[in-house]
Amino acid sequence: xxxxxxxxxxxxxxxxxxxxxxxxxxxxREIKEQNPxxxxxxxxxxxxxxxxxRFVNTSGVLYRSLNLKDKIPSxxxxxxxxxxxxxxxxxxxxxxxDDGTTLVGFNEAEWGNKLGG
Length: 117
Fold this sequence. Notes:
Elements lengths: L1 E4 L4 H12 L5 E4 L7 H11 L12 H5 L2 H4 L5 H10 L8 E4 L2 E4 L3 H8 L2
Parallel strand pairs: 1-2
Antiparallel strand pairs: 1-3, 3-4
């Protein structure tokens, strides 16, 4: 199981605590240090069943500074994926990837349902 997050993100910290309290083993990957690749993002979007735009971190400083609220609506999904792969801080987090399932953002009920916790 792969957990992508930002160590200073309070939501990521809460998600890790949740996983740890259930003894769920995962590999942590710092999203700021190791950006998701275009291929990874394509696969995760496919396996999540979510629209591409749900992978955008709309509450981040970088999102606001690049004025992406106005730019993303006119971008293709492929352009959004390439943008996300350019900087991990643009990607919504945490992301949990396991055996063909991808969860984006921390929702305790959803994670419990998917992971049996």
